[in-house]
Amino acid sequence: MRRRRARRRALWLAVAVLLWFHSAVALAQTTAQKAEAALLPTATAIEEIEIVEHNVLHRPIELTAGHTHWIDRTYTYGGTQQNLLPVHLGVEFVNARDTPVYAAKAGRVIFAGDDSKALIGPQLQYYGNVVILAHDLRSLAGSQVFTLYGHLNEIHVRAGQLVEDLERLGTIGSSGVAIGPHLHFEVRVGDALDYKQTRNPELWLQHYVDHGMIAGALRNEEGEAIHGWRITVRSDSAKREVSTYGGGEVNSDPVWRENFTVSDLLAGEYEILVLDESGRPTFFEIARVEPYRTTYVEIVLSE
Ligand SMILES: [Zn+2]
Question: How far is the CA of 166 from the centre of ligand 1 (A)?
Answer without folding.
Answer: 21
